[in-house]
Amino acid sequence: MKEYALSRELNQKIVDGIFEGYRDYLEVRREKARTLKVSGAYAWVKGNHIDHHVAIACEPYGVESKIAKAGLTWQYLQFKNDSEAMLFIVKNARYFNPEQVDRGKDALGRTRNKKISYMEELMQINSEIDFKEVPLEQGNSTQLELQLIEDSHLNEDVKKEIVKLKSIYKRFYIVTYKIDENQQIEQIRLWMPNPANNKAYLIEDLTKYINGTHTISIDDELKNILINDNVLEEGLDAHVFGIVLDDSEEKEN
Fold it and tell me: Is the pLDDT of residue 185 over 50?
């Protein structure tokens, strides 16, 4: 899949933006924990900080950002380069499932039962990509393909959006960042999802672009705040509270 790799310069800027966004988030998270009586909701804004700084870092390389919605109130950024007909998003690896991309995982690492509709739509951009050269990871692909057939009934609005996206873009990527138990970013990867089998294929491990300028100091005070946030995330599901809607719920609305 080397022919689908992004430029070294853009990869570096994506990594730079992720780290700058995380650094910015940590500063705000510490401040709010100190100044507010209650600040638990800040556990869910990390992605906004990271998206913002990835957008700034990638602008010089012709990448534009667009606000998109994933439910009633939750917003995220889509990053696009029209000259290369390419679009990508950034996700926390904690909620990413390369074996079932359009379902993802919950905070406890369990595959979600219902589909994430916006991910299902974006994956269709890659319907013309030839994934034959990439070996599949071990797993029950037959069962998954049958499951996809059963779930393939899309409403007309979704179908129209897919047609629109496919007319503009030819490649869709997912960039994931993984945070370790010490609350440091330890891994960044570039994936391309295949809508035919709902799997994500690793295009490149961007961890090699992490360097000394990305060092982030996390003291015990901040580490404890972040650990408590993780516990809070495990106890609450954004989908349950309507922050992000499941596919079936969006169709009903």
Answer: yes
